[in-house]
Design goal:
four-stranded antiparallel sheet, 2 helices, single chain
Length: about 130
């Protein structure tokens, strides 16, 4: 799953913040990428600080399920529903209904009915006025 629309994705996992950096739009599912683990134990100034600094960058063979469930649902499903379905409904259905159907109804039927009705009203008024001429 390639995430195209965001540069960084922050995922809360237990008590540490794991940040997935996706600047190059690489495939995250085959993640040999380094995951920055901002745990509180890595900032301790003790004898084992070098060991904590080495274990601060952790690699995973699989992305956690939170990335698969949350990001796939938000990015793929909702974003595709908003971009493809709703925008296509607004552009194709509603916009074409407004331009083609309603605009043609206003131009053809109502405008011609108004011209016909005004002509008929003028001829009726002429006939009514000719009756009272005597």
């Amino acid at each position: 799953m390639t995430i195209n629309n965001c540069n960084t994705i922050t995922i809360i996992r237990s008590n540490s913040a794991i940040m997935y950096i996706n600047n190059d739009n690489k495939n995250i599912n085959n993640s040999d990428n380094n995951i920055i683990n901002n745990s509180s134990s890595s900032n301790r100034n003790n004898k084992n600080s070098t060991r904590h600094n080495k274990t601060n960058r952790v690699t995973f063979s699989k992305v956690p399920m939170m990335l698969n469930s949350g990001v796939n649902k938000i990015m793929n499903r909702q974003f595709n529903i908003i971009s493809n379905r709703q925008i296509n409904i607004i552009s194709n259905s509603q916009f074409n209904i407004v331009t083609n159907r309603q605009f043609n109804i206003l131009n053809s039927k109502i405008s011609h009915n108004k011209t016909n009705s005004t002509i008929n009203n003028e001829t009726n008024m002429y006939k009514m006025s000719s009756r009272f001429r005597g």
